[in-house]
Design a protein that fits this description.
Helices cover 21% and strands 52% of the residues. It is built from one helix and six strands; from the N terminus they run E-E-E-E-E-E-H. It has a three-stranded antiparallel sheet, covered by helices on one side. It has a three-stranded antiparallel sheet with strand order 4-5-6, covered by helices on one side. Strand 4 and strand 5 form a beta hairpin. The longest helix has 17 residues. It is elongated and about 50 Å long.
């Protein structure tokens, strides 16, 4: 599982982050457009977590895995 709760920390992939230091969490993706601004494709599903000390980007293999991890992170934060 890419996300787990460990007391005052949350683990995303292999990185432990102190929960109290988290400022923002944003899902991101690279979107490809054509000349008429139509979406051609989406790549690189990521979660960006901004803390009081650094900005971290976590890359996932697909959008479903990214979205599940995002829900898991938000559930941990709501419980704190």
């Amino acid at each position: 599982m890419p996300v787990s709760h460990h007391g005052k920390f949350i683990r995303v992939q292999n990185t432990y982050i102190r929960i109290s230091h988290i400022i923002t969490i944003k899902p991101k993706e690279l979107v490809h457009y054509d000349q008429d601004d139509r979406i051609l494709g989406k790549d690189f599903p990521e979660i960006h977590i901004e803390t009081s000390k650094e900005s971290l980007a976590f890359l996932f293999k697909d959008f479903e895995e990214r979205d599940k991890a995002l829900v898991d992170v938000l559930e941990v934060l709501r419980g704190e």
